[in-house]
Amino acid sequence: MFYVVSYVITTLGTFGLIMFLARGGFESEEISDLAGLAKRAPWLAGIMTLFMFSLAGVPPLVGFYAKLAVLQALINHQPDQLYRAGGDRGDVVAGRRLLLPCAS
């Protein structure tokens, strides 16, 4: 539940800020439209950066702790499900191939 709440709040904040920027006569329909935002509105650019880093799960922001809580719950309560999370052929973690046995 913590993950859902933190994700919803962060997403609403991100899109709310984009709508706020568009309201001021600044179009923000594409990522290239945000170029130069740090010069025009440094505070808004900083807030947008925090929201985006939180959505990406960069520590020490709330998105990291939400994703960490999901992984901890998975490990603590259903360790056999952790193998299935990797898929049949494994997953890529930190640029390396992680091969996890698939429990059937």
Poorly predicted regions: 87-99
How would you describe the shape?
Answer: elongated
Query: What is the averaged pLDDT score?
Result: 76
Please identify the structural class as seen in this structure.
Answer: mainly alpha
- With strands numbered from the N-terminus, the spatial order across the biggest sheet is 1-2
> What portion of the residues fall into strands of 2 or more residues?
5-15%
State the end-to-end distance: 28 Å
Question: Helices and strands, in N-to-C order?
Answer: HHHHHEE
Radius of gyration: 18 Å
Helix share bin: 55-70%
Note the total helix count: 5
> What is the chains' assembly state?
single chain
β-strand number = 2
Largest sheet: 2 strands, antiparallel
Can you summarize this structure?
The chain is 62% helix and 6% strand. It has helices at residues 2-23, 37-40, 42-56, 62-77, 79-85; strands spanning 91-93, 96-98.
Features:
104 residues, mainly alpha, two-stranded antiparallel sheet, 62% helix
Can you walk me through this structure?
Residues 87-99 have low confidence and may be disordered. It is built from five helices and two strands; from the N terminus they run αααααββ. Strands 1-2 form a two-stranded antiparallel ribbon. The longest helix has 22 residues, at 2-23. The chain is mainly alpha-helical and 104 residues long. It has helices spanning 2-23, 37-40, 42-56, 62-77, 79-85; strands spanning 91-93, 96-98. The relative contact order is 0.11. It is elongated. Helix 1 (2-23) packs antiparallel against helix 4. Helices cover 62% and strands 6% of the residues.
